[in-house]
UniProtKB/TrEMBL annotation:
<dbReference type="GO" id="GO:0030245">
    <property type="term" value="P:cellulose catabolic process"/>
</dbReference>
<keyword id="KW-0732">Signal</keyword>
<dbReference type="InterPro" id="IPR050288">
    <property type="entry name" value="Cellulose_deg_GH3"/>
</dbReference>
<dbReference type="GO" id="GO:0005576">
    <property type="term" value="C:extracellular region"/>
</dbReference>
<dbReference type="InterPro" id="IPR013783">
    <property type="entry name" value="Ig-like_fold"/>
</dbReference>
<keyword id="KW-0325">Glycoprotein</keyword>
<comment type="pathway">
    <text>Glycan metabolism; cellulose degradation.</text>
</comment>
<dbReference type="InterPro" id="IPR001764">
    <property type="entry name" value="Glyco_hydro_3_N"/>
</dbReference>
<keyword id="KW-0378">Hydrolase</keyword>
<feature type="domain" description="Fibronectin type III-like">
    <location>
        <begin position="649"/>
        <end position="719"/>
    </location>
</feature>
<dbReference type="InterPro" id="IPR002772">
    <property type="entry name" value="Glyco_hydro_3_C"/>
</dbReference>
<protein>
    <recommendedName>
        <fullName>beta-glucosidase</fullName>
        <ecNumber>3.2.1.21</ecNumber>
    </recommendedName>
</protein>
<keyword id="KW-0964">Secreted</keyword>
<keyword id="KW-0326">Glycosidase</keyword>
<dbReference type="InterPro" id="IPR026891">
    <property type="entry name" value="Fn3-like"/>
</dbReference>
<keyword id="KW-0119">Carbohydrate metabolism</keyword>
<dbReference type="Pfam" id="PF14310">
    <property type="entry name" value="Fn3-like"/>
</dbReference>
């Protein structure tokens, strides 16, 4: 066994990152110089939000003019700038995840950051690495990217890099174990150390490696201590082991005590008071605690230094825009139009995130059908407007965002009906619309049409809003509004029934798939403002579908082996979530993790695994000990497009750890590469494997360990469509 990393377990003093890891050293020297000019009261001010709705953003820190520090604006959220108008409403994290396209992940992050900066937002509250999504019905899974830590981690890193390159500070949230909405403010997520490292912490480690400047501690308890008061989490794991250089900000009112949070390693209290009750746990209370010695001067200095360093790290001390013309609290009116050409990236993700699940006899792409019936309320924009419901808290009209704080105002929403109608006009196709979920109306529209497209959905969100009986988490994995009945009614009368699904996460599709006349199923995710345009690109074939499922679709809900906990959650499933569970327990999924059809077929050949080299020596660096990230092997393969249309394929690499490792999932994603190929063309997919990718977490040693022996290497088109197998040995 090669022990790769013995984490430093000393009280957090930021270790300056090595060259190439961003310029934290320079940020810290500026922060230290500025700190020397501040009184304790000013330092406490940096660490304490001004109070709920007391500033223009959802979170605000008062300005300190003597050091040029502005009123700091922290604003949601992960898919667009919340409450502002004339912003881009991007596809949600989950649909970004289903593109498996790191370039689009970066571009989306960059566009988000550009809009935030132009609006004077200093800290954008995203991306979401937790919930990871271990429970399929959990309300906020759609805000994150995938329940696979590697895919989520790549999306986190690329989003953070894109946002911060645009100049805004990113905030990786919610740290950690906020895997459901029910009782999120009181339950304990009891997560074993190995499980935490290999699943839940992994995406955060990637964000830290990408130099994220802030991390938001979550509402729940972890191992019986509140996340924002948990020294092992905030100081031990995050600041020491992951060498996080930035600051920990509380989720809104997730702080519970004055000294407990401070001494655990929390650095910034938001919104400051408890949602407007004027009860500040920090502020004067923190000042008193420092005077009395229950919080050390060093800890206060460290909080303030970290906050200043994050601001300097992004160069926000130089000519940063101020929030002008809009606030969160006046209905979001005014403010500059910051959309630029970002609808292009929004459309690309809406398009490339679509997963084609079923396509019998090439039912798709559509080829100038004589007549088309579009059925279901999900085909149209909410008749009261796309922003009619506060924080998108209703499931009326086409679903393009879940609900809660992770939403923004739609500048417009192109629904499927809008985009298909335009396309149909150019084709001479007659379109009939049945814009309700009425089965009789749907059947009568479908009966007369050559092709029927039924639109159904499934929504979820944050627990402060209840929609149709769902208090955040979904009630089950069935389509909403009796979607199964609607599809059945249509399929009973139309032999070419196509089902388009907008969903926050997996659904049980057995009823729909049992209908012979359902010839195609299109999984259109949570697509944002460009919903209809992205859909038209795929269903009419100007682009071949290239999305792959970022989670498993089961035959029955119980197959997942995880459910909403009514009390504390002991994470007894351990490492076996989603496909790791289906593989381990030998359960056949309906559509496996990583699955997605194309309008072409691909062949795989020429697997070259090479050999494993030893990692170099390691030193502490953001993300963990530096040699964890050394590439120790590179696997390559050839992928060839055998069909007649250009298309992209997401080639995936899974590993099986050697038998010398402790019991582990049979397959774990450790690489993917998306390749665009012209018809008939071939290309090379590359999977660089880092030392961490070939290691397991050894709790006893407190280290990642690369086991000796033979690693199984599986390369294929999904987690179960493995085309090439090989091995790598230590
Ligand atoms: C609570 C949510 O959990 C978090 O994601 C959000 O950033 C804050 N509220 C602020 O709105």
């Amino acid at each position: 066994m090669k022990s790769l990393a013995i984490p430093l377990l000393v009280y957090a003093t930021p270790v300056f990152a090595a060259a190439g890891d961003g310029d934290w050293a320079s940020a810290y020297s500026k922060a230290t110089a500025a700190l020397a000019k501040l009184s304790n009261s000013q330092k406490v001010g940096l660490a304490t939000g001004v109070g709920w709705q007391k500033g223009g953003c959802v979170g605000n820190i008062a300005a300190i003019s003597s050091i040029g520090f502005p009123e700091l604006c922290l604003q949601d959220g992960p898919l667009g700038v919340r409450y502002a108008q004339q912003v881009t409403a991007f596809p949600a994290g989950i649909t970004t995840g289903s593109t498996w396209d790191t370039g689009l992940m970066y571009s989306r992050g960059n566009a988000l950051g550009t809009e935030s900066k132009a609006l004077g937002v200093h800290v954008q509250l995203g991306p979401v690495g937790g919930p990871l999504g271990k429970i399929p019905v959990a309300g906020r899974n759609w805000e994150g990217f995938s329940n696979d830590p590697y895919l989520s981690g790549m999306a986190m890193a690329n989003t953070v890099a894109g946002m911060q390159a645009a100049g805004v500070q990113a905030c990786a949230k919610h740290y950690i174990g906020n895997e459901q909405e029910l009782n999120r403010g009181s339950m304990s997520a009891n997560i074993a150390d190995r499980t935490n490292h290999e699943l839940y912490l992994w995406p955060f480690a990637e964000a830290v490696r990408a130099n994220v400047t802030s991390v938001m501690c979550s509402y729940n308890k972890v191992n019986s201590s509140y996340a924002c008061e948990n020294e092992a989490l905030l100081t031990g794991l995050l600041k020491d082991e992951l060498d996080f250089q930035g600051y920990v900000v509380s989720d809104w009112a997730a702080q519970h005590t004055t000294t407990g949070s401070a001494n655990a390693g929390m650095d910034m209290a938001m919104p400051g008071d408890n949602f407007g009750d004027n009860n500040f746990l920090w502020g004067q209370n923190l000042l008193n605690a420092v005077s009395s010695g229950s919080v050390s001067q060093a800890r206060l200095d460290n909080m303030a230094t970290r906050i200043l360093a994050g601001w300097y790290f992004l160069g926000q001390d130089q000519g940063y825009p101020t929030q002008t013309g809009w606030t969160s609290w006046n209905g979001g009116g005014g403010g500059p139009n910051v959309q630029g050409d970002h609808k292009t990236v929004a459309r690309a993700i809406a398009r490339d995130g679509i997963v084609l699940l079923k396509n019998e006899n090439n039912a798709l792409p559509l080829n100038k059908p004589a007549s088309l019936a579009l059925i279901g309320q999900d085909a149209i924009v909410n008749p009261s407007g796309p922003n009619a419901c506060t924080d998108r808290g209703c499931d009326t009209g086409t679903l393009a965002m879940g609900w809660g704080s992770g939403t923004c105002q739609f500048p417009y929403l192109t629904a499927p009906y809008d985009a298909i109608k335009s396309k149909a006009a150019t084709d001479g196709t007659t379109v009939t619309l049945s814009n309700t979920d009425s089965t009789s109306a749907g059947a009568s529209a479908a009966g007369a049409a050559a092709t029927a497209i039924v639109f159904i959905n499934s929504d979820s969100g944050e627990g402060y809003i209840t929609v149709e009986g769902a208090a955040g988490d979904r009630l089950n994995l069935n389509p909403w509004h009796s979607g199964n009945a609607l599809v059945t009614a249509v399929a009973n009368v139309n032999k070419k029934t196509i089902v388009v699904i907008h969903s926050v996460g997996p659904l049980i599709l057995e009823t729909i798939l049992a209908l012979d006349n359902v010839v195609a199923v299109v999984w259109a995710g949570i697509p944002g403002q460009e919903s209809g345009n992205g859909l038209v690109d795929v269903i009419y074939g100007s682009t071949s579908p290239s999305g792959k499922l970022p989670y498993t679709i089961a035959k029955q809900q119980s197959d997942y082996g995880t459910a909403i906990a009514s009390g504390d959650d002991n994470y007894s499933e351990g490492l076996y979530i989603d496909y790791r569970n289906f593989d381990h327990a030998n359960i056949e999924p309906r559509y496996e993790f990583g699955f997605g059809l194309s309008y072409t077929t691909f062949s795989y050949s020429n697997l070259v695994t090479g050999s494993i080299t030893s990692p170099g020596s390691g030193s502490s660096a953001p993300g963990g000990v530096s040699n964890l990230w050394d590439v120790v092997a590179t696997v390559t393969a050839t992928v060839t497009n055998n069909g007649t249309v250009a298309a992209a394929e997401v080639a995936q690499l899974y590993i099986g750890l050697p038998s010398s490792a402790p019991a582990s999932p049979p397959k774990q994603l450790r690489g993917f590469d998306k390749l665009s190929l012209e018809a008939g063309a071939g290309g090379t997919v590359r999977f660089p494997l880092r030392a961490k990718d070939l290691s397991y977490w050894n709790s006893a040693a407190g280290a990642w360990v690369m086991p000796t022996g033979t690693f199984n290497i599986y390369v294929g088109s999904s987690s179960r469509d493995i085309r090439l197998t090989g091995s790598l040995s230590t």
